[in-house]
Structure formats: structure tokens, C-alpha cells
Amino acid sequence: MKKLVYIFCLIAMPLVCFAFDYVGYPICLQVHYINPSGTINQKPKSPAAPPTVYLEDNTLTFVADHPEYVLYIKDEDEEVVYSTVVTSAETEVTLPSYLSGTYEIELVMGYWLFTGWIDL
Description:
Elements: H1 2-19, E1 25-26, E2 30-33, E3 53-56, E4 59-62, E5 69-74, E6 80-86, E7 92-94, E8 102-109, E9 112-119
Antiparallel strand pairs: 1-3, 2-9, 3-4, 4-7, 5-6, 5-8, 8-9
């Protein structure tokens, strides 16, 4: 029985990997809580899970079934150079082609802020 399970896993794992084959490189995102009232007691005990986002060229690919985010792209001076709303129905966002270099990416979902760095 153990051999059968082992053989099944050997066959099934590559199929699962191909089924969830995303294009691009995953973006490592940090989780931050935005406290609008300034009180400490309102912060949830567990953080929100960061979204799974991939980057290829100037296209961001979101894993399906994600909530709505406000997307900000900031330059090295912390100035917003691009922003848009990513609805829950969208799985891809194409960033403008004039963006080139290293940028900070921010995704805002309610009181949660997800930040990371991308190279375009």
C-alpha cells in the first residue's frame, strides 16, 4: 500500500505543478497593519496573508480569487508614479511601459498594507 501511495505521488506532483504554472517571478511581500485610529487594542492577533503575485516584464499576475486591492508603484523618492484599483475579477495588471528600474510596490486592502520591490 505504501508503494502505491509513493508511486501515485510521483505521478501526481508533476501534474499539479503544471496545473498551477504561473508565468514570471513571485514578488516577496511584507505585511503591515495600518491603524487608522491610533489605538493599539484594535490590531488583529494574526496578520493577513500576503497575496501571491508574479511579475513578468511589466505584467503583474494575481492568483485567482483574490480580494480587491489598491495598487501603488513608488519610485526611490517615495513618490507614486502609478496607481490603480485591482478588482477581484482581474488576474493581470499591465504596468506602463515607460516604467523602468527598481520600484516599491504597495497593495492596500482595508487596514492591511503589503509592500515589496520589483525590477522593471
